[in-house]
Specification:
alpha+beta; BirA Bifunctional Protein, domain 2; 2 domains; eight-stranded mixed beta sheet; two-stranded antiparallel ribbon; 12 helices; elongated
């Protein structure tokens, strides 16, 4: 009986070792392990039979079966290592990386801040240093805030200066519009804040106009100061300090010319001295003049529309095109390119993401 049993064990061992060696992957090897050593595996079934044997038979078959079990486990472990090594070689071959290729730069290296965003940050940094807060308002406005409250009476010719985008009339005949300037925020600020008021108002504005220096959507920023003592002298000082800081020059000459805006009285256009003899405009030197903004003392009617008393408070306001002064400062010849979404243009004129404007180290350094 023992001789037959030993012969059977040898045949079983040979068969199991052959199947283990032939396992092509981890899944197949696990299947062979279960078939040999699992709860109902061939070796496990033989081990269950030890209890029915005589003591003498157990003395022979016990060590033989346990030895078989150990050898099968060793064969499985050895085959598993071979398969892992083969899998590693295969992955290294398939997932090979050419380490001689240049590393792709990160988004912080390739990304660029649009010049308009950069200039808005520069302007707000300057005025924040002068004690101004930021105010904002909706792009879609009513006729009241865009015109009437800013001293544009119904039928006034000054309304024709603004080529306005109107929405379809409502049932009551009123029409909403895309704001033509950021000035409506002046009224909204006066309605919600108590003087003294010192705010700058950046934002998008819209007019039906398109050429090399005009686009249907453009950006403006304006300032508003209301208190009891503001004068034209204060206005001139604020604008001079802004222009020196923005164009990064030590001195600048400014020229104030009489003009007309319905919401200011008196109203003025501001020119700054420049040199246009070369390929770029230089400020703070030269014999030329260039108009950059409009300003004036806030009209008493506008103060009244804002819910304040013009006999108790007075102030000044100014406004300028952000896109235009960006063109002047950074030498961009065509305003339409600002909105073409051309990555090549943005790579050339854009700013690095972490180069935040700072008066301490220079706005555009």
């Amino acid at each position: 009986m023992n001789t037959v049993a030993n012969t059977d064990l040898q045949a079983l061992e040979k068969d199991l070792l052959h199947r283990i060696a032939a396992a092509a992957d981890e899944t197949a090897l696990e299947a062979e392990r279960v078939a040999a050593l699992g709860k109902k595996g061939a070796v496990s079934e033989l081990l269950k039979g030890l209890g029915a044997m005589t003591p003498d038979e157990r003395k022979v078959m016990g060590p033989a079966l346990n030895g078989l079990k150990d050898r099968i486990n060793q064969a499985i472990a050895a085959r598993r290592e071979v398969l892992k090594e083969a899998e590693l070689v295969r992955r290294l071959e398939e997932e090979r990386v050419d380490v001689t290729l240049p590393v792709r730069p990160s988004g912080l290296e390739t990304g660029r801040i649009h010049p308009v965003s950069q200039v808005i940050d520069e302007i707000t940094a300057i005025f924040a240093d002068l004690g101004f807060a930021i105010a904002e308002g909706p792009d879609i406005e009513s006729d009241y805030y865009n015109f009437t409250a800013l001293n544009f009476p119904e039928g006034h010719p000054a309304r024709e200066m603004h080529d306005t985008f109107f929405f379809n009339p409502k049932e009551d005949g009123s029409r909403m519009l895309l704001r033509t300037h950021t000035s409506p925020v002046q009224i909204r600020t006066m309605e919600t804040e108590t003087p003294p008021i010192r705010v700058v108002i950046p934002g998008r504005t819209y007019r039906f106009d398109s050429d090399q220096t005009h686009t249907p959507m453009f950006h403006q920023i304006e300032g508003l100061v209301l208190d009891e003592e503001s004068t034209i002298g204060t206005l001139k000082w604020v604008l001079e300090e802004f222009c020196k800081a923005f164009f990064e020059v030590d001195r600048i000459n400014m020229r104030f010319r009489p003009s007309f805006f319905p919401f200011t009285e008196p109203s003025m256009e501001v020119d700054i001295q420049c040199d246009r003899s070369g390929s770029e405009v230089r400020f703070g030197t030269g014999d030329d003049w260039m108009e950059i903004l409009g300003c004036g003392m806030v009209h008493p009617n506008v103060i009244r529309y804002g819910g304040l008393d013009p006999d108790k408070v007075q102030g000044f306001a100014w406004g300028m095109g952000i896109d235009r002064i960006a063109m002047l400062k950074y030498g961009m010849p065509d305003l339409r390119a600002f909105f073409d979404a051309d990555v090549r243009w943005l790579n050339h004129y854009g700013f690095r993401p972490l180069d935040l404007p700072s008066l301490a180290r220079g706005l555009s350094s």
